[in-house]
């Protein structure tokens, strides 16, 4: 069970509330909070900086849901010609978009092998290395 302590921090430096401050106790697990369709969800690691403009950074954990319908400009994980990519999808123009100015849009053509693996519904950033993830991130 996670205890949620309502600490609101402004853009500047701010102190923490007193340990005696009221807190909420919710019967909630991180799985319940982050994953909507457990049997259709997988985790992956982001690589590179092409999605930084949307808040996805190198080594972030991506929570990818295969069940949800893909909408215009969703962030997706796809297989493009044998390579897994994380991009924003322009469904109408059939373009894979990065959110970093160094990367150009990629057209998905009829001769490409292309499959959408799922929609990125959440991303998680670890601010300290996790011993559980150390082996996976190092690869």
How would you classify the quaternary structure? Answer: single chain
Q: What is the global morphology?
A: globular
N→C terminal distance: 32 Å
As residue ranges, the low-confidence spans are: none
Q: Number of helical segments?
A: 2
Structural class: mainly beta
Mean of pLDDT: 85
Total number of beta strands: 9
Widest sheet, order of strands: 3-4-9-5-6-7-8
Measured by DSSP, the beta-strand proportion falls in 25-35%
State the order of secondary-structure elements, H for helix, E for strand. EEHEEEEEEEH
Protein model, in words:
The protein has about 140 residues and is mostly beta strands. It contains 2 helices and 9 strands. The strands form 2 sheets. Strands 3-4-9-5-6-7-8 form a 7-stranded antiparallel β-sheet, with no helix packed on it. The longest helix has 5 residues. About 15% of the residues are buried. The mean pLDDT is about 85.
Task: Give me the secondary-structure topology.
Elements: E1 2-4, E2 24-26, H1 30-34, E3 41-45, E4 61-65, E5 75-80, E6 83-90, E7 95-97, E8 106-107, E9 114-124, H2 134-138
Antiparallel strand pairs: 1-2, 3-4, 4-9, 5-6, 5-9, 6-7, 7-8
């Amino acid at each position: 069970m996670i205890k949620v302590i309502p600490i609101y921090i402004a853009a500047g430096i701010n102190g923490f509330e007193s340990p005696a401050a009221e807190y909420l106790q919710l019967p909630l697990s991180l799985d319940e909070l982050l994953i909507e369709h457990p049997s259709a969800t997988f985790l992956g690691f982001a690589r590179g900086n092409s999605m930084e403009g949307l808040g996805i950074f190198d080594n972030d954990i991506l929570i990818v849901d295969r069940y949800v319908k893909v909408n215009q400009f969703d962030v997706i994980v796809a297989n493009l010609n044998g390579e897994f990519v994380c991009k924003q999808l322009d469904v109408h123009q059939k373009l894979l978009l990065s959110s970093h100015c160094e990367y150009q849009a990629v057209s998905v053509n009829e001769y490409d092998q292309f499959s959408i693996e799922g929609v990125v519904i959440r991303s998680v950033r670890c601010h300290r290395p996790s011993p559980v993830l150390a082996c996976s991130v190092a690869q």
